[in-house]
Amino acid sequence: MAQSNLVSIRKNETADAGWSKTYTPEYDTSTAYDSLTEVNENVNELKEKIKGYPERTTKNISLSNIGVTGYRLTEPLQVTIIAEDSVFVAVSYDLNTFGYGDTEAEAIQDLRESIVEYYEDLKGDRENLGKVPQCDFEYLDRILKAKN
Questions:
Q1: Residue 7 has pLDDT above 60, yes or no
Q2: Nearest CA to 77 among 60, 101, 89, 59?
Q3: What proportions of the chain, in percent to the nearest 5, are helix, strand and coil?
Q4: Across all residues in the chain, what is the average pLDDT?
Q5: DSSP code of 16?
Q6: How many other C-beta atoms are found inside a 10 Å radius of the C-beta of residue 95?
Q7: Number of other CB atoms surrounding residue 139 within 10 Å
Q8: What count of other Cβ atoms lies within 10 Å of the Cβ of residue 7?
Q9: Fewer C-beta within 10 Å: the chain N or C terminus?
């Protein structure tokens, strides 16, 4: 029988004495080893580079209180808190708005004030809003209400 480098045909040793195909790919193990060694070296280089970057942590919270006099939230607002190099950033991805501070509480309060300012700016220029600001205004107008 002829044998290729991908498939060998051998006599089956079972009682039916049939023929079977066995797939036996032939690998150059030295090439595979060299490739694996190169990948491992690249991973180690990246690990060393990463050590120089500041540590960053994130967490998600639901903001249920706007914390600005004269306004209240009618539904929670999703916020991501990012801590990096002793600076905190509070981000509302729904509104592309952020606040920052030296503490998590300061960052959240700055975000709250930024959201109210953004809403007031949008409300004041309601007639001239583009598509995205109009969507932001409609969202804020639904979830942010003046206290009576």
A1: no
A2: 60
A3: 40, 30, 30
A4: 83
A5: T
A6: 18
A7: 15
A8: 11
A9: C
